[in-house]
Structure formats: C-alpha cells, structure tokens
Amino acid sequence: MPRVSPKRSEPRSQSPAPEPSLLTGERRARIVELLAQNGSVRVGELSRLFRVTEVTVRSDLDAMAREGALVRDRGGAITHTSTSLSTAFEKRALEHADQKRRIGRAAAALVETGETIILDAGSTVMEMVRSLTAQKSITVVTTGLNIAAQVGALPDVHVLVAGGFLSPETISTVGAMAERDLEHFIVDKLFLSTQAFDAKSGLTDVSLDVARVKAAMIRSARRIILLADSSKWGLSMFAKIGPLAEIDMLITDDGLTEVARKAIRQFDIELMET
C-alpha cells in the first residue's frame, strides 16, 4: 500500500530530541520511564535518543531483562507484566544497583538450611533473593508479591504471604490484615529494608502503612538484619518504623563515613560493609 503524505497544514511528528550524555544507571532509569509511557522501546530509537551505540543499548536491555525490569523483544523491549505494577519500584531497583547486588549476596549467605525468615519487600531484598539459589528447606514469610514469586520458584522453599491491601508503589501487602498475619509468626531472622535511617529518627519510610508493616515484622523476629546502601544513612522520612537500636546487624556498602560507622556502632549493631 503506498504511503500517504501528511497534509501540509498538519505539523510533522518529531522524534524526541537527543538527551545529554547520561551515566549507565541514569540511562536505564530513563528506559524504565519510556517503557511506562509507551509500553515498548526500540534499540534504534534509544541509540539516537541517548547518543550511544546500539551495542550499548542492547547491553542495557539485556541487563535489565536479567533483573526482571523488562522483557526483551526483537529490536527492543516491552513492559514486563510482573513489574508493570510499579514504576517507582523499578526506578528504585536501578538506583545504586551495584551496591544492592553486593549487599544482597552478603545477606543471602547468612541464610541457613532449616531457618524461618521474613523477607521485606524492598529492591535490595530482591537482590538477596536472586542470590538464594543454593538454599534448601527454608520457610519464607513475606509481604512482597514479587519477592514471593521469585523465591517461590526455588526448590524446597515454603512461602507464606501475609494478606492485606496491595501497595502498588512497593508491590506488597499493607494494612491491618498484613500486620495481624505477621503477629502469628516467630522467625529466626528478618531481612529488612528501609527508605532512610539515622541515629536520631531511627528507621523511617515515606508511607505510614508500609512503616507499620515493617514494625510488625520487627516484632516477629529474633534477629533483625537491615539491608540498606549508604546513601540512605542520615536521612529521615515521614513515617517512623522504630529506633535504630532494634537492629542487630546492618549490611551496607563501603560508602559510610567514619562518623557514620561510629554512630551506628554506638547502638551495638554489628556492621558488615560489602
């Protein structure tokens, strides 16, 4: 069929203007945004938009597909149905991704066969789950729907999901039902995430509903292990989860200052830097 030229009175559609040079993490965060807006992206278009080679774009898409942020398609990528619930979660997963992977691997090594554990719904905890391939015969309690789907695919893992209302931002359950479900358990370890933590305000989050569920998790665990990259230290959000003294162990990256390390150790917290 011949192509019909647009009428002269109609403005020509224009491709997005090329963007300034971006770092890898920034470029991948923009890809997530474009996927949320359009449902798909093409390699050639991204190459022109970011002013990088198509080889670089394919490398980005392949890495993001391995992380579950999208589905690779011929010539580009499409939105992943399991992650399209939350653009916010996708963007957080790409922030400080290398640090989160190291923290996740270190946390996974602490899980022992036969243990019962609670897994929070954070992006760093998701990195931990991806490193649990060799674990056997563990029981996992979680509020994270994506966490449950990932860990549930492992052999000899029994998964219990706390009920409640769905929080699209965190892809997890919240509310009184989730809190009551968590009160029925006493687990060996809790692997907790947080939006911010410091010596004065303790553990905090932007959402009161999410903070209340995290507090219920803390009450249900014998040992509380916080997974948080160093960028979250010294920040304080709206909703308080609990005092820093409730944490037994912090797994973070090597970005903490000596002042921060000293402040954390004053609470008798075991510090592991990856």
Keywords:
alpha/beta, Rossmann fold, Arc Repressor Mutant, subunit A, 15 strands, 36% helix, globular, 10 helices, 2 domains, disordered N terminus, 7-stranded parallel sheet, 274 residues
What is the share of helical residues? 25-40%
Shape: globular
Rg calculated over all Cα atoms? 21 Å
Calculate the mean pLDDT score and round it: 87
N- to C-terminal separation? 60 Å
- CATH top level of the largest domain? Alpha Beta
Main sheet makeup: 7 strands, parallel
| SSE sequence, one letter per element | HEHHEEHHEHEHEEEHEEEHEEEHE
Number of strands: 15
**Content of β-strand:** 15-25%
Structure commentary:
There is one protein chain. By secondary structure, the protein is of the alpha/beta class. It has 2 domains: 24-90, Winged helix-like DNA-binding domain superfamily/Winged helix DNA-binding domain (Arc Repressor Mutant, subunit A), CATH 1.10.10.10; 96-273, Rossmann fold, CATH 3.40.50.1360. The chain contains 10 helices and 15 strands. Helix 5 crosses helix 6 and helix 6 runs parallel beside helix 7 (145-151). It is globular. The termini are far apart. Residues 1-14 have low confidence and may be disordered.
